[in-house]
Amino acid sequence: MADSDLKEFLADILSVLAMTMSTEGERESLKYRLLGSEGDIGSWGHEYVRNLAGEIAQEYTKQLSEEGLIDDLMELVQQIVSFHMKHNAEYEAVDLLLEVEDLGLLVEHVESTNYKRTCLYLTSAARYLPGPDDILVLDIAYTIYLKFEEYLSALQIALFLTNLQSVMELFTSCDDLLQKKQFCYIIARHGIYFELDEDMAADDEEREALQDIINANKLTEGYLTLARDIEVMEPKSPEDIYKTHLLDGRASAGVSVDSARQNLAATFVNAFVNAGFGQDKLMTVPSEASSGGSSGNWLFKNKEHGKASAAASLGMILLWDVDSGLAQIDKYFHSNDNYVIAGALLGVGIVTCGVLNECDPAMALLGDYVDKEDSSIRIGAIMGLGLAYAGSRSEQIRSKLNRILRENKAPLDVIAFTAISMGLVYVGSCNEEAARWIILALRNRSDSELKEPLIRLLPLGLGLIYLGKQDSVEGTAEVSNTFNEKIRKYCDMTLLSCAYAGTGNVLKVQHLLGQCAQHLEKGESHQGPAVLGIAMVAMGEELGLEMAIRSLEHLLQYGELNIRKAIPLALGLLCISNPKVNVMDTMSRLSHDMDTEVAMAAVISLGLIGAGTNNARIAGMLRNLSSYYYKEASLLFCVRIAQGLVHLGKGLLTLAPYHSERFLLSPLVVLAVGMFYSTFNIHPPPKNDCFMDSALPAKKFYACKKIPNGSLVHSRVIKGERRIEAQNPVEPQARGARTALAGIITLLHACLDMKAIILGKYHYVLYYLALAMQPRMLLTVDENLKPLSVPVRVGQAVDVVGQAGRPKTITGFQTHSTPVLLAAGDRAELATEKYVPLSPILEGFVILKENPEYHEDH
Fold it and tell me: Could you give the CA distance from residue 839 to residue 816 in angstroms, rounded to a whole number?
């Protein structure tokens, strides 16, 4: 038939009929559409457009493999995307553009009415995409938010990708001082070292005020405002937590014995319960009391290393309050008891943990004690430096710690805690210099030292340097194969689990499960970190988390002892500060296990899953366990610790290393180079600045050789070739987000040998939890940053991804006045139109400004 309008109309009709009548896989609907008229594609209906989109995806793959032309396909894609974006089918447009690898096309079709739904779908889909597609998707979402001046949402994506360059761009793009203050609150919560310059804030006073917020100096003030509003300022004693009057007679008799072990437990319970409140009934001296008051009395009710934990507990009680905290701890520096001095040094680190101070008091106070002869003083100073400078990547700290790691005669415990501090200071940095000295320290250990329980902290310190860095750990993992066989496998598992923590990488979970399935000879210890690794990798998203819980249940039935004692700790990590009923029941069962180590791990994990929740059911379980184990000093100690954790900060604190509705996750630092190499098997030549993958002749992938950590990556298709370009990189230094997970992991690895470490003389590793402590609050403030009470609805968060219209985002809500507490899985929304929140997510500090369009009805 000759070319005519009639022929084109016939092709259109055949294209529609081919939806149902053509042979599967022939793509005749697309074939006739390309031959037909170029009329409105939507006039044939939504189902026809969807069918075409599916066939285009298949045809695009075929054309690329045959190196065919795709220009006509891309014209059709333009029409389909335009149709979808105008008909509330944003997610279908995104899926099509992902298939044809031209997501950048989305930016020009997004409108003010649908950009929020589009970006919500993009950010949700990114979690399930392989690299580098996940970075590309988030980059597009960032660009869209920037287009519509949705700076706060763009900031969250920039923080997710740990891209300081983009954060700087947002500060310079935004002219609103209030929005900049909200930026600072979010940055402070996420925990990165970030210094403002004149381009970001021209006025000196404004810049100083903004920097003060970033340095988290407002945290203690907001936390105490919440406590006063909820009326929990009254200090609590350990007896208020134990509630022995609710138990039968046999338990209360055991509790009343004034033993050093029980006093030590009371010290930790007191520290956890009154954390951040600045006052308690054991350590802080009342104003009317003399200088030799109750503080000194309680301190000396503890023996030797117990005194160190007691003195350090003052730091926990005065958490984040640097000025007042250091003044109260100062008196212990003049003690004649080395253990008390060690505790004071650790207390300084705890007080300054997560807070930046211009005077840098931690270095001034701790620096000189690192080289003392007494081991306990050195450990106190080293731990204090690790806590105070976690995530700072300070070269000054590294030089001090390097000197200790080089010492051949230094005791193993000093070396072990130095490695942990090095790992904390350089967490997630891939710093080769820091890693090299830990590797040398591991190689220099004698055979007898390699059998010591504390040796496990050296591989962990090495692993923390690569926390969340994925393939970047491969070089160090190769080096670890040269270690002594007694520590080699343990190091392998620790490095792998740390490097892929929070990524949800299914292949790594399978590998770790494979390690746990082996039946080994007695003495092999590497299965413990493998079990913890399953939890660390899978905790990144909800679906993987649920699957990991089920897998751990199977291991519990068939695994051997070294696996069984790690499973409660892994479950505790997966559900930290989130008491799921099924996990709670498992813990309750394991807490009565015949094996003491399994029971102790289960008891500690009960405390972790209920941390800061005041969960009545867990509190009841622990009270019953204190009655059940009243003759078992070690188990009773673990029960007391768990009781303290459940009532952490009187229920105002959380240990969960997530925030911003689980979007910003602790260790999730995307390494672009690692992703390119792992996904496309790319090996860059040594001399060229760019490289092309020869393994994929059909798809030519170009990338810069030096792609930065976490940099935003741009991609575009040019004549069938995708070009991937990286922006100028700047990797921020993490103060809180990654360090939160690092602190929890350190405690869990110590708990793998509970008897030697937690129940031995190194119980102060419990204070590493200070790195993860954050108020679980919503505090609304006005434009002058003064607390402002407004009604909010708090309920269970509902996933509204891909839903059209304006669906409800919470269910089962209750209306409260701020400040309010937010439990795991809760979401808050403003219940008044009088104010407008500057942050899209109501968590932590949220600035409200008056709504100019609001009119009260009289």
Answer: 19
